[in-house]
Amino acid sequence: MISKLRVFLEMIKFEHTLFALPFAFVGAILGAVTVEKRLPDWSECGWILLAMVGARTAAMGLNRVIDKAIDARNPRTAMRAIPAGLLKSKDVLIFIVVSLILLFWAASQLNSLSVKLLPLAVFFLVFYSYTKRFTWACHIILGMTLGLAPLGGWVAVTGSVTWTSVILYVTVALWTAGFDVIYACQDVDFDRKEGLHSIPAKFGIARALGIARMFHALTAAGFALLLIMTDLSWWYFAGMIVAAALLLYEHRLVKPNDLSKLNAAFFTMNGVLSAVIFIFTFIDLVVMKTWRG
């Protein structure tokens, strides 16, 4: 079982939880300060961490099970654990069930709204993996799914949904949709051959990269709008500028006729961006607030 767990964690790229987890804590800190006029306590942070691990693990496990036949036909993904025979679907389903139990348990320790919103979250976790079979808007659906991380963090500490939390949700959703469009460019030929739907398969790589740039321009606008709507100040502003520069650099790495740096654009830049937004938000609302007394 230990060896299977190791293969499972490698299969779902557990380390890429870094994409969403910082934004969950951004939502928690921003919500607590904006609505509750306080900081999240350690128990809330712990339950949010467990909920995020459960949600993200379940989501990626479900994706690998649902897409196992497609992955087996795609040369890029044929060596993933299930098509390569390293894990059976039933083994992965066990890990998924455990992850969902962890998610439900963590949410139940927070507040009633967190529990009430769980069915919606689980729906998106399952639904996303099917969307590329029938719509090129699958990237937007993924964004709506990952955007639940900051919204969930906000709800976890406030027990409410406000316009500010919605702006944060939409901003992260657009960021996710943008980088997923970039990532999908490497599978454009395979997607067209298999009749799968994506923005690159529908519109071509050049136009797809233009759409990704539009999504990320709106992401930068969303970060700026949060500055206006909340108590965030100069430290967050500095982080926002760094994040905008990272988005710009990400798009300079990937060109319609050269996708060789796609992995750096997808994994490195986006992991750094989420960490930057969290760190500067933390400095702004936690460190500086404590320092000022």
UniProtKB/TrEMBL annotation:
Required cofactor names: Mg(2+)
Subcellular localization, as worded in the UniProt entry: Membrane
Signal peptide segment: none
Topology term for the membrane: Multi-pass membrane protein
Pfam families membership: UbiA
Chief site of localization: membrane
Keywords, alphabetical: Membrane, Transferase, Transmembrane, Transmembrane helix
Residue stretches spanning the membrane: 47-66, 87-107, 113-130, 137-157, 163-184, 205-228, 234-250, 262-283
Similarity field: Belongs to the UbiA prenyltransferase family.
Protein name: UbiA-like polyprenyltransferase
Organism per entry: Cohnella silvisoli
